[in-house]
Write a structure and sequence with these properties.
The chain has about 350 residues and is an alpha/beta fold. The protein has helices spanning about 10-20, 40-45, 60-65, 80-85, 105-110, 120, 135, 145-160, 190-195, 210-220, 255-265, 315-325, and strands spanning about 1-5, 25-30, 40, 55, 70, 90-95, 125, 140-145, 170-175, 200, 225-230, 240-245, 270, 290-295, 300-310. Helix 8 (about 145-160) packs parallel to helix 10 (about 210-220). Bound molecules: NADPH dihydro-nicotinamide-adenine-dinucleotide phosphate and N-acetyl-L-glutamyl 5-phosphate.
Length: about 350
């Protein structure tokens, strides 16, 4: 299968390159960039002797003629315009941005700019691989989930679907490394600002709030609004979400761990930690794993759920390739069996 990438020199794009270069069934047909005709090694010297492909200008007609799949690793607002060029062409599209995840009205309310036409976004399947596999398989257009929603939803799904929680009690405390903001420079992600610091941002206004609520409601129609707070960690890669939910009835930590193991035992990228052990972001760096730890507090009746992912892997490029595998009826782990980089 021939694949193309648009937005190649971004952090998501270059992570896609790292994965696809060694994928046994996907051949990189072309890579595209606003930088036009440039050797990829000029942008990223770590590809020296590994890849002698040149960046090309962005030409959707050319891409649709040449490739079977195109990954859009472009910003929100840009992806939506590009998707319109590929609709009704014989090419599978996987968009890493938020442009296809929400209905038009919600999108404009939270992303603060015009959305793609409903006729396009309604064709997209939400690419939460472990939960939407059958729809993904039959789709030509994937809205790849955001990094924070991926970790949040994977950790909340089992207890939400089972109706074990007070549906109005969900609080999510989320932390991301600075690569989550992409490679564009900004005040908050500069070294001097991020180093030796921990900063909260977009309090009660993060664009991932409606995305998380939308998916939770599909699992449990009683779900109420969630409180979701994001923080910037002084690390490059890595994401942790710590979710707090009120349990309707007493359940021991051991019982809930068994529930999570049962729900995820056919999903190789989800690793449920034993009781009294909790994952750290380093333990999934560079891999497509989502590691989950739980603790039920009988004193408060609250369950604490910790999930860690690599924001560029399971949070973006890794899940995008996992979805491409599913769309092509390949084993979903194909080309994604990276052991985390430690330390
Ligand atoms: N970083 C993360 O952890 C995650 C990111 N995402 C989403 O994935 C997408 C890519 O993110 P990320 O790689 O971090 O972002 P970056 O800012 O690192 O890269 C985005 C790339 O898009 C290209 N681009 C920018 N503007 C335009 C334009 N006007 N027209 C065409 N191409 C353009 C550029 O690539 P070039 O210079 O090669 O043209 C740029 O490098 C975004 O939508 C982001 O929200 C989703 C989950 C996690
Ligand atoms: C650290 C940091 O700034 N992270 C970004 C994540 C952006 C992202 O992934 O946005 P979409 O999924 O909506 O495309 C943020 O919180 O806005």
């Amino acid at each position: 299968m021939k694949v193309s990438i648009i937005g190649t020199t971004g952090y998501g794009g270059v992570e896609l390159l790292r994965i696809l270069k060694q994928h046994p069934k996907f051949k990189i047909q072309s890579i595209h960039s606003t930088k036009g005709e440039t050797p990829i090694t000029e942008e990223y010297p770590h590809f020296y002797h590994l890849m002698d492909i040149n960046l090309q200008k962005i030409d959707p007609e050319y891409i649709a003629d040449q490739s079977d799949i195109v990954f859009l690793a472009t910003p929100s607002g840009v992806s939506g315009k590009l998707v319109s060029e590929f609709i009704n062409k014989n090419i599978k599209v996987i968009d890493l941005s938020g442009d296809l995840r929400l209905p038009a009205r919600k999108y404009k309310e939270w992303y603060k700019h015009e959305s793609v036409h409903e006729s396009i976004s309604e064709k997209a399947v939400y690419g939460l691989s472990e939960w939407n596999k059958e729809e993904i398989k039959d789709s030509m257009l994937i809205a790849n989930p955001g990094c924070y929603p991926t970790a949040s939803l994977l950790s909340l799904a089992p207890v939400t679907k089972a109706g074990l929680i007070d549906p109005f009690s969900i609080v999510i405390d989320a932390k991301s490394g600075v690569s989550g903001a992409g490679k564009s420079l900004s005040r908050n992600t500069s070294f001097a600002e991020a180093n030796e610091n921990l900063r909260v941002y977009k309090v009660n206004e993060h664009q991932h709030i409606p995305e998380i609520e939308q998916q939770l409601l599909q699992w449990n129609k009683d779900i109420g609004p969630v409180t979701f707070t994001t923080h910037l960690l002084p690390i490059t890669r890595g994401m942790m979400t710590t979710s707090y939910v009120q349990l309707k009835e007493d359940h021991s930590t051991g019982q809930l761990i068994e529930l999570y193991k049962e729900v995820y035992n056919q999903h190789p990228f989800i690793r449920i930690r034993p009781e009294n052990t909790f994952p750290s972001v380093k333990e999934v760096a560079g891999s497509n794993y989502c590691d989950i730890g739980l603790h039920a507090d009988c004193r408060t009746g609250r369950l604490t759920i910790i999930a860690v992912i690599d924001n560029l892997m399971k949070g973006a490029a890794g899940q995008a390739v996992q979805n491409a595998n599913i769309m092509c009826n390949f084993e979903e782990t194909m080309g994604l069996d990276f052991v985390p980089i430690y330390p």
